[in-house]
Structures
1.
Amino acid sequence: MQRFISIGDAYSLTEAEKERVKAVARARTTSNRGAGVNDAGIGPSSGVSKDMIGCGAEFAFAHLIQSNFDETIEPRSVARGEDEGDTAYRGIKIDVKGTHYPNGKLVVAPWHQGRDQGTIYALMIMTDRTPTFVFKGFALPNFVYQFPSDLGHGPTFAVPQERLAEWWHLDAFNPRCQEHEIIVCLDCSDPHFG
């Protein structure tokens, strides 16, 4: 049974988990470059470094909600509809974003717009070299796209941490359970968006 996650929940990777995350991150970077996928990340970090933070964020989030870490290596294209998110939370796919900046924003690349229906974004911040990751909140796509930005690497969308929501506050963005006709039904294992 998955558990609820709250802003501020944190998870520190063990040494074994850190090595597992590094291996997946390196393999993803190699696979992406080998398939001709450009490093389209937003920011100055190298592909491997970004992939390690991203994989670590995904692993920590999955652990916090008691879900499986997706160790898929093959490139998945948002444009071709191949990206099913990083994990699922109460039946809804989650795209986990990670950063090492303490005041980092939930950053979503512009090519996701219009291709992320049914996705919820989550932000994890890596706080130290352990590494420890802290959950900072959720946002739905229609909310994310209200925050156009340019962080020095071209147009993107960037939601400040203080604008992210707890799971039970997502009713402000109007996800609805069709069966029970209430906002974010906690009894429903597969809530739907209205």
2.
Amino acid sequence: MGTNVYDLVKYRESILPYLNAPADAVGRAKQKNKWEKNLKAALLDDQAHVLNLAGRYDTPEYNKLSSELDARYAAYAPWRFLKNETPVENEGRPSLLKQIVLGLIGEKGDVVSVQFAAVIIRGSDEKARVFFVDNSSRVVFGKLRVRGANRDAYIKAFVDDVMKGVKALYNEEQKIGTASGNAYPSATSLLPKIKHLVEVKVDREEDVKSQ
């Protein structure tokens, strides 16, 4: 998803040429200043958004963007929304729900270990988020928002279903790897499929909630 967003936002341009300009000079100056400021905020927010979707919200690069956005464009609505989607320290400690270890062949041909985990962060008794991550690299594959009290059974069932799907994908990829003479599946092949699987399952749950 991060790659898709990057492909879209790299074409962002100023909206000014498409707006009807006020008749007076003061109005035109205010309009120009407003939308130029919004564009600068949007370009920074785009970069933060891509990093967030890639699970790189705890990197120096993201922290630098976050500090600049907070200092100069704190009122920019898309940034306020993105901050709400990012885990924060005062939201509670992450708690491991379930984890499986996947042996994979890395890009350089070496064996790497992916600790695919479901981690829950509770904002309150009625609000939580479940993150599906690689505990080794801290890459985020997707997240599920959960609202309402006493949802532990629902969360467990969803996590078990995701883990079952990931294991099935791994077994399929392992068969392909074995046929090619490799003991483990390819990371470059499997990890995007895992991310897609998680996103599809989360989207399906969001669609059910909205009905």
3.
Amino acid sequence: MTVTVDIPGGQATFREQDELTVGASRAVARALRRVRRDVITAPTIAVDGQIVDEGTDLDEGDEAKAPTDLIGLPIDLTEDDLDATWAVGDVMILAMLESWTLPGPVPADSAALEALTQPVYMALQQQVAKMQRAEATKADQFGPDGVEDPASPTGA
């Protein structure tokens, strides 16, 4: 099932994770292998419209909770670390973005994503992150009796 959302200037349709091709899944796995483990698990903060973990309180002083820069990444990243981190985001967008209503073709590579305006790129990135969080939540619902189903009379 696809998900269509509004983005600046139009709409974008995304594939669910179970709709990804083998090639796209492998590209994501390769990109993730290049990222330092502490970067993947780093807490995310945000400033001026950058990505924020849901529920994050951005009152004064929150930036000091973790040694991060303005986009929520650890400050000790090398250029290679930054490139690897950005590559994961790009590969995820490229894998999940199926179509859009913006002029021109859907981006086919990182160079095409880099040519997007910041608001469009951030909207794509935020939707992918939202879908990834939802997928992770689904994975957490497994228990000894399978997937919990609130609509089921037994709850299982």
